Amino acid sequence: MAPLFETIKSFHDVQISSEGVETAGFLEATEGLVAMFDLFGSKIFGFVQSDIRSNIGGVRTRYQTHKDSSQTLEELVKFEVINGDHHRHGTACVVRLIRGLALIQHALQRMQDHPDDELHVCFKSAYDVVLRHHHAWVVRGVVTVAIRAVPHRRDFYQVISCGEAPEKFDPELGKWLQALEVIVKRMKDFLESGGYGNV
Fold it and tell me: Kind and range of the H or E element at 59?
């Protein structure tokens, strides 16, 4: 069986045009990310997965009900504002989804950049930078405990790479992370500069 990272849509393959980030491709790549974390079988990454799944659902619903005006994430957000949608559920889901992806991108990039760091250290660093300031102290405590339950680095690599040699897996993960970083940065800049939400 081919490793999952070879079969799911990569963020590297998500189209980005002058109009923005292609919604359908972005959702497919994000679902692939969730599937990757599902390989662990338990709810080790549940604190991230449930939030991402919920927000994928919100963005997908908006996309499916307003396809003509939601071909890109940016169009989806602008359309809600232009139409005076006071709830702006799709926009809120995009903001939270980008936050979750920023957390994962930061954690896995640190894992690649610091080969001696355990995974919980990488996720703790990412949480402190990306999400901590959005949470009350009670939530921070719960997340800190959950982060301590992530697998050891070597176990994570073994599961995600499905036994592939690091020489093959690392470059693929690097391309994937680089593309995800481009999308996260682009969307963060768009959302914050437009006053649509703080990532």
Answer: helix 46-65
Which phi and psi angles does 163 have, rounded to 5°? Answer: 85, 0
Query: Rounded to an integer, what distance in angstroms lies between the CA atom of residue 65 and that of residue 57?
Result: 12
CB 44 within 8 A of CB 151: yes
Total residues belonging to the chain: 199
Residue type, 74: E
- Which candidate, 6, 14, 26, places its Cα nearest to that of 101? 26
Tens digits of per-residue pLDDT, 111-156?
A: 999 989 988 888 888 888 887 777 777 777 777 777 777 888 888 8
Amino acid at 126: A
- Tens-place pLDDT, residues 165-190: 777 778 888 898 999 999 999 999 99
